[in-house]
Give the backbone structure.
Amino acid sequence: MRADDDPLIIRFNERVRAWRVTVENSFETESSLIGFGRQQSHRAVVLKVVKRPGDEWNSGRMLDAFDGEGMTRVYEHVEGAMLLERLEPATSLSTLVVDGRDEEATDIVADVIGRIKLTEAPASTPTAKELARGFDWYRKTDDTQIPLRLLNKAERLYNDLADSQTKTRLLHGDLQHYNILHDAKRGWLAIDPKGIVGELEYEIGASLRNPYDTPAILSAPQVIERRIKQFASALKLDANRILGWGFSQAVLSAIWGVEDGYSVPPESVPIILANSMSKMLGI
């Protein structure tokens, strides 16, 4: 644990007092300090304090907008901190894929998406169109890890899809296997929404490139095609647009990796997935 005078610890302890939480145990992740405990000695909760502004900074506000439908409930929230319903046993959906049950896992992702509340986006929620600025950012760098042919194709297709969207709505924005957990009482639920305004076909992209520790599974053309067919059938979506978003988002995901200081070699998930999808698109 960090020192008591650390700004993160100070913020954590402020929320403990303000929300009357008894912390039983805590741990630190790359992005947050998380505590498991009880509120006013009875309700099982998770206290999450995000380290710095970024994708998760306003997750509490997004969870509040979704009102617990298809997602974990938020009891309290301020910028950079939230008090959440504790899910138990909180098994990750990624375990099903590892166990060879990808088709079942895909049906669960589709079911969670279908249960998420259709609601108005909070003010200043970013749009899918705005995220295209990542392509501009990458072109201004000296980085050459992302093949130019993929970059050019993805940027063009991403912008075409963003400009031709219909029925945009508030989306989770990172709805994939590691962000779907099982609760014994409420079933499979999403956690950690980023909040993006876009069409529902956009939402599928994150699950197509996950679980990221099963690259041989998710990059196989037959798996990609089967997953897309499942999503399109279950949610009444356009399969071609799902594929287009999946490809262009894979390249954008690689760009975000570069932006965060990670290496993006040819064998990385975003690149191998983009290569597979590019062939499927015939571009």
Summary: The longest strand covers residues 21-28. The chain has a mean pLDDT of 96. The radius of gyration is 19 Å. Residues 239-259 form the longest helix (21 residues).
